[in-house]
Amino acid sequence: MSQVTMTVNGKTATGDVEGRTLLSQFLRENLNLTGTHVGCDTSQCGACVVHVDGKAVKSCTMLALEAEGADVATIEGQAAPDGTLNTIQQAFQDHHGLQCGFCTPGMVMSAAALLKDNPKPTETEVRDYLEGNICRCTGYHNIVKAIMAASGQDVSSIAAE
Amino acid sequence: MYSFDFEKPSTIADAVAALADDDAQALAGGQTLIPTLKQRLASPEKLISLTGIPELQGICTGDNGALCIGAGTTHADVAAGAGAFPALAALAGNIGDPAVRSRGTIGGSVANNDPSACYPAAVLGAGATVVTNAREIAADDFFDGLFETALEEGEIITEVRFPIPEVANYQKFEQPASRFALVGVFVVKFADGVRVAVTGASEEGVFRWREAENALSNGMDAALIEGMSPNADDMITDLHGSAAYRAHLVGVMTRRAVAAAN
């Protein structure tokens, strides 16, 4: 076992991990941050997306020890401390961007990474960016709509489906 | 995953020393190796991470205007920083998905030489030079069949040097589930000729399609290779496509790349 220390949602987090411990496993099992979901564990589905030093990564495909010293952001750090949802989360609620909700943590974190680099994406750019996030319920339409709305764009022309 | 030890050296010299151990394996961005370990298809006793080595990072312009890309540079950083070679930047920006591009590296992809990966087509097509801790290897001498390269045990890629072509284009027909290339064709024109490198298609891994190169030496015109496709005998057959289908796609994607390059 080795000790790993990183900043998670602004707080220092330390734990003992094996070489093979994944970042997703460290977040969920050591820190009890179970909002990061593991859907496929094969880097296909994107439910485990978190930010590492500001970049979206699949936490099931990164070793915890690789995040030594890194600044990690997870879904738990997105809402305000009093529980007020952030803009993207609120848009997902307003536009019904989820059904079962399993993929939502990854969707929200991917959306946050997209909007950081590209504050006013087109619908095509949103769909392209979500290539690595799989949702089996919604058909993506309302997810795309929510992200467009979160970017401050008028989504009234995107029909509800 | 089987258990392994983990080391993260901060210099190339320390990484090479750590890799001298027979049971050690280099870990770049891990976007292929970690899934491989999860499937227990590999069981190294020790992983030597190359992600903490500043010498392996970044993009610069070298001698003769070549674009030098540090082996540890991620696909996202190549997509954003290889503006001097737009076809290469576009290729990097279309590998996998955004989260994969945040971690996966050019050195990892080239060293792995997956027969369906995109980067080998760019390296071979552009006639790049693969620089390691020990030597410089021309792309034509580097790739050596499925997952095989000229790299010796413990040798690591430090940099890939791309000469800047007059025009170039990469066309990828994606396997829709994995987003690897079912067939990918990188076409490059230099003052002294055209090179065509094909990934995803052959049982022998990435290859140069010489007949198309010869035909295109008379001009970058898709009409010059109309109806041509390589021999299907060496092509991959799997549930995604037959050998004949892949051979046909090589012709189609090459013509598209030639048309788009102009």
Model description:
The complex is a heterodimer of chains A (161) and B (262). With 161 residues, chain A is an alpha+beta fold. Chain A has 2 domains: 2-77, Beta-grasp domain (Ubiquitin-like (UB roll)); 87-150, [2Fe-2S]-binding domain (DNA polymerase, domain 1), CATH 1.10.150. Chain A has 5 helices and 5 strands, in the order ββαβββαααα. The longest helix of chain A has 14 residues, at 104-117. The radius of gyration of chain A is 16 Å and the shape is elongated. The model of chain A has no long low-confidence stretch (mean pLDDT 96). Chain B has 2 domains: 56-162, Uridine Diphospho-n-acetylenolpyruvylglucosamine Reductase, domain 3; 167-260, Enolase-like, domain 1 (2-Layer Sandwich), CATH 3.30.390. Helix content of chain B is 30%, strand content 22%. The longest helix of chain B has 19 residues, at 243-261. The termini of chain B are far apart. Chain B is of the alpha+beta class and 262 residues long. Classes of the chains: A alpha+beta (161), B alpha+beta (262). The interface between A and B is medium-sized, with 29 and 27 residues.
What is the percent of helical residues of chain B?
25-40%
Could you give the count of β-strands of chain B?
A: 12
The CATH class of the largest domain in chain B turns out to be Alpha Beta
Q: What is the count of helical runs of chain B?
A: 10
- C-alpha termini separation of chain A: 50 Å
Biggest sheet character of chain A: 5 strands, mixed
Radius of gyration of chain A, taken over Cα atoms and rounded to an integer in Å:
16 Å
CATH class of the largest domain in chain A: Alpha Beta
How are strands sequenced across the largest beta sheet of chain B? 4-5-8-6-7
Mean pLDDT of chain A: 96
Specify the oligomeric state: heterodimer
Portion of residues within helices of chain A: 25-40%
Write down the CATH topology of the largest domain in chain B: Uridine Diphospho-n-acetylenolpyruvylglucosamine Reductase, domain 3
- The tally of domains of chain A stands at 2
Poorly predicted regions of chain A: none
Main structural class of chain B: alpha+beta
Taking the sheet with the most strands of chain B, its summary is: 5 strands, antiparallel
